[in-house]
């Protein structure tokens, strides 16, 4: 099993948390995991990208055009980081428009759940549903329970389940 | 080493922190700075979790942090200090001399470099600095390796009584990986400082001998078999050889794998770039005709190889600036190995969204007040979130920690020499930066008769790096109470005669104070005026609960002039392309209502909803 995933969005959209969940899911499945994240200045609402590599890799960075899957927290990020995903790779996008990708209005779903903070989890659930990720829903559910802050567990799980049901 | 526990996903900085705790290190000091900030925080977490007795501190700056760790090691106990690369510039004074005098207990100096740079003011290579000081340096390529190198660094440090540097880069610091953890070593060492004035006082008469002994140590380390770089690809008979270290080596390996050339190219991985193994240098230069060196960010390995035929940064076969991303290394390898690339199209770089101060950030209010009060002013600023004030026209200069105050003085002396009609100079500095390096500049400015305004942006935290406490907050790294040191006391003690405090949310009062301060500067008895703009950081959720809260909306009166967007740049104020009007993103707005004063036609309406006035 080898998979390379990028997660793209803006600082504050929960990119780091999704990165952590994917890393923990890999560990749970006994796979090697390497991720790379953006911290510091870029976190103040600027554009942010995370790399997740599952399987036998040595570098935390994904080369442009090599990612199997891209999760985009907003559609404007497809233009910025879309080139990381390989030509027939999967692009899972939070959007209220249609485009040359697998789009879903994750923000609207999260708003229905009462908090836009769950947008990242809705998108993650949708990516699992579409089989665009190395892990299945049971593994991810367990990881969300383990990695979430106590106060956030419920919202995170509801967000994830919402994504699975779309 | 203790018994093995299970594998955990750790960030590079956490792996380093874990390594420090496992090594029986009893003091870790640091000053926060991306990409190194999480090292100390993870030492707090792991020392707590394993009940390891470690003194952990956020020191006021890196020089202080270094000296605290150095003093600890003189007693025979293990210590470590962590900082970002420019922090080493601040700590360079004790760093350089510590190579000569050495240490007793192991001292590991973790310096995180930032090729790119992603969040720094230079791309400097700390391995180069280590070579300058004659201090050995490890260069990890991933978190698990970084953790292992902490232990190796302590052993080397104690064997040769010399500080040892661990130099991760951003891509190691902020990578996550499954890392195996052990129970921490307990060294049970009692503090014992052995007096030896010839060494610990080391007046010039002792130094040539100490220098000679330092050179002997480095000569010995350069011949250690265990530091001989390992060949990780090829069979040793290839015509081409690549020498690499750190993340650049990991990227090189993967690209060779991608090209199907793992068997055909000899790739050597260097763990200790300085001192580079002498036998290795001889063997490689003799055995290979074509040698490529790939390293970040300076040609540290390359220059020690002393072979002018080498392809690398000196020959510019490897770009001599910027991060060595997989894309960059891919092109370098294609040229060196003469393999045509997979027609990798040059992707047009699309610019992302630039970072911006948070909605409700008190700095935004302060910058707006400063730039509107003194439209002709000059605004030096400093390192922190508030550097983003450049987006608002509130920051004209940003150099290095604490520089704004001294630069402000330099600007003043230049203009004042030309006549009394000098521009008002307003410098902005954060509370943590003021403690770090602002105080000497302030004393100097007062003492030398400079006249300008200093606005200390006091948000009671070190925000940019993840909200570490400052001495005025009075909390230690582990959250326990320390002794509070007040900024106003320091300002007064520095001889400042004009000191006022104000919440910048109250733009009207803040503006009045700025004008008063400007008049004071130019008055007969004038000098440096200090205003403390005090309001908690928006990242502090608890503090936000106590603040006033309004429902902010934009009325029909909005003319779409975008003054609020350009001059105020609050992320919650959004221009709607269709209606050509501004609206408030209620999910982003924190209800501070400072923007009310910004709209030239009064189209921003506010309605009180909660919190204290």
Give a written overview of the molecule:
- In chain A, α4 (119-129) packs parallel to α6 and α5 packs antiparallel against α6 (153-164).
- The mean pLDDT of chain A is 94.
- Chain A starts with a strand and ends with a helix.
- Chain A is an alpha/beta fold and 166 residues long.
- Chain A has six helices and six strands.
- Chain A has one domain (3-164): Pyruvate-ferredoxin oxidoreductase, PFOR, domain III (Pyruvate-ferredoxin Oxidoreductase, domain 3, 3-Layer(aba) Sandwich).
- Chain A has a six-stranded mixed sheet.
- By secondary structure, chain B is α/β, with parallel strands linked by helices.
- Chain B folds into four domains: 4-221, Thiamin diphosphate (ThDP)-binding fold, Pyr/PP domains (Rossmann fold); 226-336, Rossmann fold; 362-543, Rossmann fold, CATH 3.40.50.970; 548-610, Alpha-Beta Plaits (2-Layer Sandwich).
- Chain B has 21 helices and 22 strands.
- In chain B, the strands form seven sheets. In chain B, strands 3-2-4-5-7-6 form a six-stranded parallel sheet, with helices on both faces. Chain B has a four-stranded mixed sheet with strand order 9-11-10-12, with helices on one face.
- The longest helix of chain B is centred in the N-terminal third of the chain and has 18 residues, at 143-160.
- Chain B starts with a strand and ends with a strand.
- The chains are: A alpha/beta (166), B alpha/beta (613).
- β2 (33-36) of chain A pairs antiparallel with β8 (175-182) of chain B.
């Amino acid at each position: 099993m080898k998979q390379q995933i990028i997660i793209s969005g803006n600082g504050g959209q929960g990119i780091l948390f999704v990165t952590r969940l994917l890393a923990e899911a890999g560990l749970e499945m006994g796979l090697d995991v390497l991720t790379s994240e953006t911290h510091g200045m870029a976190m103040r609402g600027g554009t942010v990208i995370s790399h997740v590599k599952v399987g036998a890799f040595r570098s935390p960075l994904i080369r442009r055009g090599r990612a199997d899957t891209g999760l985009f927290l907003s559609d404007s990020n497809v233009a910025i980081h879309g080139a990381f995903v390989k030509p027939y790779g999967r692009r899972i996008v939070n959007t209220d428009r249609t485009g040359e990708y697998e789009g879903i209005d994750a923000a609207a779903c999260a708003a229905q759940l009462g908090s836009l903070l769950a947008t990242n989890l809705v998108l993650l659930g949708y990516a699992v549903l579409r089989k665009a990720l190395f892990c299945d829903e049971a593994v991810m559910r367990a990881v969300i329970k383990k990695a979430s802050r106590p106060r956030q567990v419920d919202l995170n799980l509801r967000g994830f389940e919402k994504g699975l049901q779309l | 080493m203790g018994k093995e526990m299970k594998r955990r996903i750790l960030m590079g900085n956490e792996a380093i922190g874990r390594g420090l705790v496992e090594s029986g290190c009893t003091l870790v000091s640091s000053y926060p700075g991306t990409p190194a900030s999480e090292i100390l925080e993870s030492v707090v977490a792991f020392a707590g979790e394993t009940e390891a007795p470690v003194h952990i501190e956020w020191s006021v700056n890196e020089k202080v942090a270094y000296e605290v760790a150095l003093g600890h090691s003189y007693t025979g106990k293990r210590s470590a200090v962590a900082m970002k690369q420019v922090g080493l510039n601040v700590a360079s004074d004790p760093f350089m001399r510590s190579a000569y005098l050495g240490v007793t207990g192991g001292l590991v100096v973790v310096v995180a470099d930032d090729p790119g740079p992603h969040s720094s003011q230079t791309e400097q290579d700390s391995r180069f600095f280590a070579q300058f000081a004659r201090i050995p340096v490890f260069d990890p390529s991933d978190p698990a390796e970084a953790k292992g190198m902490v232990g190796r660094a302590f052993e080397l440090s104690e064997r040769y009584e010399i500080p040892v540097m661990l130099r991760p880069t951003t891509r190691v610091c902020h990578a996550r990986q499954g890392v195996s953890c052990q129970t921490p070593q307990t060294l049970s060492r009692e503090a014992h400082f052995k007096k030896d004035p010839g060494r610990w006082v080391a007046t010039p008469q002792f130094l040539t001998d100490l220098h000679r002994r330092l050179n002997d140590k480095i000569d010995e380390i350069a011949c250690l078999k265990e530091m001989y770089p390992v060949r990780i690809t090829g069979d040793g008979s290839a015509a081409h050889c690549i020498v690499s270290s750190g993340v650049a080596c990991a990227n090189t390996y993967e690209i060779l794998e991608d090209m199907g050339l793992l068997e055909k190219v000899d790739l050597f991985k260097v763990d200790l770039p300085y001192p580079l193994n002498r036998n290795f240098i001889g063997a490689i230069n003799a055995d290979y005709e074509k040698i490529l060196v790939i390293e970040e960010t300076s040609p540290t390995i390359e220059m020690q190889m002393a072979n002018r035929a080498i392809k690398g940064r000196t020959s510019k076969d490897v770009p001599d600036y910027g991060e060595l991303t997989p894309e960059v290394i891919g092109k370098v390898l294609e040229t060196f190995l003469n393999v045509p690339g997979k027609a990798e199209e040059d992707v047009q770089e699309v610019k992302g969204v630039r970072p911006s101060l948070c909605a409700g950030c008190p700095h935004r209010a302060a910058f707006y007040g400063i730039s509107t009060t003194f439209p002709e002013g000059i605004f030096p600023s400093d390192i922190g979130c508030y550097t983003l004030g450049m987006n608002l026209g509130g920051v004209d200069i940003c150099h290095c920690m604490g520089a704004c105050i001294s630069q402000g003085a330099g600007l003043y002396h230049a203009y004042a020499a030309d006549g009394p009609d000098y521009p008002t100079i307003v410098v902005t500095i954060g509370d943590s930066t003021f403690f770090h390096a602002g105080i000497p500049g302030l004393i100097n400015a007062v003492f030398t008769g400079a006249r300008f305004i200093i606005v200390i942006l006091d948000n009671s935290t070190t925000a940019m790096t993840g909200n570490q406490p400052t001495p005025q907050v009075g909390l230690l790294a582990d959250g326990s109470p320390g002794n509070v040191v007040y900024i106003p006391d320091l300002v007064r003690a520095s001889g400042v005669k004009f000191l006022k405090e104000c919440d910048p949310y109250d733009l009207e009062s803040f503006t009045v104070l700025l004008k008063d301060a400007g008049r004071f500067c130019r008055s007969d008895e004038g000098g440096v005026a200090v205003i403390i703009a005090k309001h908690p950081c928006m990242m502090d959720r608890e503090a936000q609960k106590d603040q006033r809260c309004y429902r902010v909306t934009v009325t029909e009166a909005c003319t779409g002039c975008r003054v609020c967007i350009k001059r105020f740049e609050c992320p919650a104020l959004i221009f709607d392309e269709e209606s050509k009007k501004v609206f408030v993103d209620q999910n982003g707005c924190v209800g501070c209502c400072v923007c009310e004063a910004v709209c030239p036609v009064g189209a921003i309406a506010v309605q009180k909803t909660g919190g204290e006035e």
